[in-house]
Design brief:
Blueprint lengths: L13 H29 L11 E8 L16 E9 L10 E7 L7 H13 L3 E5 L12 H7 L2 H16 L4 E11 L1 H8 L3 H7 L8 E5 L5 E3 L9 E6 L7 H13 L4 E6 L14 E3 L8 E3 L5 E3 L9 H11 L5 E3 L3 H25 L1
Parallel strand pairs: 3-4, 3-5, 5-6, 6-8, 7-11, 8-9
Antiparallel strand pairs: 1-2, 2-4, 10-13, 11-12
Helix pairs in contact: 1-9, 4-5
Length: about 350
């Protein structure tokens, strides 16, 4: 005689059958989470698992600075954010998976960087949403320089919290285990999103990120109120990255620790900017930003400490950058050995973050 599955057995009381079914789903969810964490620790992804990205859209907005959040359609216009979601095949309402939201750098989404990380994370059991802040705002700016003048870090932060709301509403995503990862320009936004005043402005009643990661992010802004959401931060940079002021990054890390977050800094010897990109180098491009120095006040206004000007829009931002952007370029170049190390460091950080949340539950 074959015994029917417990959840369907007519010999079990309905309440007990429901409990057993729930426990089975919970067990499947924990097994999937444990698998993802083990793979992240080793950055052990299966290339046979080919995950195709799914285009997604979700409502966002475009404040020029944090002070503009909620100031109406002229200063904080609505926006439809766009992204590419890489979802593990096993993700389901019964077994929700952790997730990572990624913010690109000043050159936009790079296939070898964001899209590759997205596929690798999905193969390890972690959903990845790659946000394209430039694509959503093509009508605001075209070209490298104009994008950096008109599409600000605050707009990337807006997209990050909008993406967090979007993923938090999906039954196949574990809303308590969503991390934010940013590269260069996006790394600045990923760091800004850690401050409590920023989170309260952009998502007053919404969820918070479980962890933040900044890849080779210029350390340009100091906050007068250093209090954080309490989530941990991982800062990754190269010792030869001329766009990053290591002294100021260390000072900001100390302020964030005082503000309530665990902060880990890793500096890779001899690494230059964008070691995980597509450009073979090192080669010199662009202009340096390391002399730019901003202060974000408690009311959300951004002050340039070099000129004393308040950043209110594209015109003032252009003037401010004209005084602090260096004429010399900075080195950029792919380095697969450094990428291997940063993969392991990123995976280890995410595994710890996700495990910490699971343990707290």
């Amino acid at each position: 005689m074959v015994t029917p599955p417990a959840a369907e057995s007519p010999w079990l009381p309905p309440v007990l059958a429901t409990v057993l079914a729930a426990l089975a789903l919970l067990s499947a969810g924990y097994a999937g989470a444990a698998r993802a964490q083990a793979m992240l620790e080793r950055w052990d992804w299966d290339p046979a698992i080919r995950v195709a990205g799914e285009p997604v859209t979700f409502p966002s907005h475009s404040p020029f600075t944090p002070a503009d959040v909620g100031d109406g359609p002229r200063d904080d216009p609505p926006e439809e954010a766009v992204g590419m979601l890489f979802l593990p095949p096993e993700a389901s309402a019964g077994a929700p998976v952790p997730a990572v939201i990624m913010l690109h750098g000043a050159s936009g989404v790079i296939a070898r960087r964001e899209l590759t990380y997205g596929r690798q994370l999905a193969a390890m059991g972690v959903a990845a949403l790659v946000v394209d802040a430039f694509a959503a705002r093509r009508d605001m700016a075209q070209g490298f320089t104009n994008r950096l003048i008109r599409i600000t870090e605050s707009m990337l932060v807006a997209d990050a919290y909008a993406a967090l709301r979007h993923l938090s509403r999906r039954p196949d995503i574990d809303r308590t285990r969503i991390a934010l990862v940013g590269f260069s320009y996006g790394g600045m936004a990923a760091t800004y999103a850690l401050y409590r005043q920023v989170a309260e402005r952009f998502a007053p009643d919404g969820p918070r990120f479980a962890g933040h990661v900044a890849f080779y992010a210029p350390c340009l802004a100091r906050f007068t109120d250093p209090r954080t959401t309490g989530a941990p931060l991982l800062m990754l940079s190269g010792s030869r990255d001329e766009i990053t002021d290591q002294r100021r990054c260390t000072e900001i890390a100390q302020e964030l620790r005082a503000g309530g977050s665990e902060v880990k800094q890793i500096v890779y010897p001899d690494a230059v900017h964008q070691w995980d990109g597509s450009i073979v180098g090192p080669r010199r491009i662009g202009r340096t930003l390391s002399e730019c120095d901003f202060t974000v006040r408690e009311d959300g206004t951004v002050r340039d400490d070099n000129t004393g000007l308040i950043m209110r829009g594209p015109f003032s931002r252009r003037i401010i950058l004209a005084f602090c952007v260096g004429r010399e370029g900075y080195l950029i170049g792919r380095d697969d050995r450094v990428r291997e190390r940063s993969n392991r460091d990123l995976g280890h950080f995410l595994a710890r973050v996700f495990d910490r949340i699971a343990s707290a539950d």
